[in-house]
């Protein structure tokens, strides 16, 4: 939890010159609420960065989250400070309408003000949840499902997304079993295949989660010595004996190539 | 088997894993000719090239240190060896005492210069046997060569391909030697030292002789052909030890110091031959003292199909064999002999599904041997001295981690004697992951015409099919 909160303590210090601590802490209940929200946000952030491509149309971007948090403090002092989040500014209009708010901040808040803040927080929260749900919908639409299946839950969406990404990565990396399974089967000699006896059910933390389950392992052996011998032949370097007739013609050069005189000394 | 087990050795996965990591092996390498010429009456035709042995691996030093640690003096820890024919009834007189010398590459080398087979021995084939022990009397073991064919003299007739064991096949190993005026003392062997070919009076090397296609390139890569080596063929000689090769040469029959250019019969054991460089066909492979050079032959005035050679360019060719024994005493406490050394000649896989069996064919098997796959002991059944059977361990025992099941796993095969002696064998065993059965048939050619959407649809389909279990979880 500490690590999760860290970025926000940074934000606090950043924003402190713009409004006083007192003000910040009066909104205690909503802040607590915010904390848990932000914690959730952090989880979602992982997703947003992963699938930003698909995420564009949901309008809230990574920056948008910051903008949202920033609005809380800046909206009253500067109406243009909205990072282009059109809907967020319009929804925060109660704040802006209330121009002299900043002067009254030093006093205790009135009941009406508290209600207004509460309302605003609720709106933001609803919007945030909506954006998460939109993102899940976006992610869901990219995950293959069974035709008869009911709508995937969030956790299943995430689980399947992990599996599907693994599956696609494997597809790209390996020479996929999906493309041409028939020619494969025809060209290969009969294999002795052993089914492995692991009965543990796969979990999302397995690196191969989402990859097609193995049919087993084929068995083979290699004569390493023979392999080594073949390798020696394959990588042979040719040594050409010198022609004594040519020795006096290009003496030194030939000598260096075949028998360096220094070798004899050393 | 006369091992005295002082106390049971510790053989577990950790011990074997440690062995596999450092391989403190002792290796015995025996090189010898495939044929031996019989000696008649009082003759002594020494085997040529002389059978030789190389001892290599860090295990020898370890063993010596071990002996010293047990209280033996320096003088008792020297390695000694005798080589003899395999039938002689243990008479030391017929054995050749080897002088082991340590080379610069840390291998120990010795050769048996004066072994011969008398005509009183009526066998058609025999083996050499090397007995190794420490000077204190402790036996290491006995090591056998491959079979050697006894011949009376080199064939002068045109060799028939039917006489396969006298022919030299492409891809087999040969030795080449040169003997001036048939004097044994002047014999020099083609060898490689410091990356260069030499004519050594001391050591010989085995060369792989291969038939080379005409389309050979200059990059040291040649198309290798099958078949027997015949005169007139282009061949290449590659040193089996160092990988240094001579340029492509035409092998020529030699008769009375002439290269005969119009003979195309198969090359036979102990024939005299010459090697004419392909790129410059006046030049022949020749020795000049210890050096290997090119020699320019002179045309024969009377016969156009002959060229006059010198002594140094006439070589005798003979097929050679090599046998290698590798073992480790690092896990054993017993001081017994390591022989008989089991030899695996062939493997055979059977079964599949839930249980696969590996059958081992070879020699010197016994109930005291277990097959190990890497650091895992397999359930092993002894059938006969020539056959053993074991259950292939499940791949999961090698992979503590789930992910390794997705990659091929290769483990070395070894045989472990009950007392912990390890016989390393040249085979490795591989488990290759196999994917599920192919999906139901698709329209032929679909993948060629498929646009992006159908491809994605196919991938989706494949994902849901192969990951049905994921959908069932919630």
Automatic annotation (TrEMBL), chain A:
InterPro entries: bHLH_dom, E-box_TF_Regulators, HLH_DNA-bd_sf. CDD domains: bHLH_TS_PTF1A (cd11417). Residues 116-168 form the BHLH domain. Signal peptide: none annotated. One of its GO terms (molecular function) is sequence-specific DNA binding. The keyword Transcription applies. Keywords: DNA-binding, Nucleus, Transcription, Transcription regulation. It holds the Pfam family HLH. It comes from the Eukaryota. PROSITE patterns: BHLH. This is Pancreas transcription factor 1 subunit alpha. It comes from Coilia grayii (Gray's grenadier anchovy). The lineage of its organism: Eukaryota, Metazoa, Chordata, Craniata, Vertebrata.
UniProtKB/TrEMBL annotation, chain B:
GO terms for molecular function: DNA binding; DNA-binding transcription factor activity. SMART domains: BTD, LAG1_DNAbind. It is found in: Nucleus. Residues 166-315 form the Beta-trefoil DNA-binding domain. The keyword Glycoprotein does not apply. Its main location: nucleus. InterPro entries: Beta-trefoil_DNA-bd_dom, BTD_sf, CLS_fam, Ig-like_fold, Ig_E-set, p53-like_TF_DNA-bd_sf, RBP-J/Cbf11/Cbf12_DNA-bd, RBP-J/Cbf11_DNA-bd_sf. One of its GO terms (cellular component) is nucleus. One of its GO terms (biological process) is nervous system development. Putative transcription factor, which cooperates with EBNA2 to activate transcription. Belongs to the Su(H) family. Interacts weakly with EBNA2. Does not interact with any Notch proteins. PANTHER family: RECOMBINING BINDING PROTEIN SUPPRESSOR OF HAIRLESS. This is Recombining binding protein suppressor of hairless-like protein.
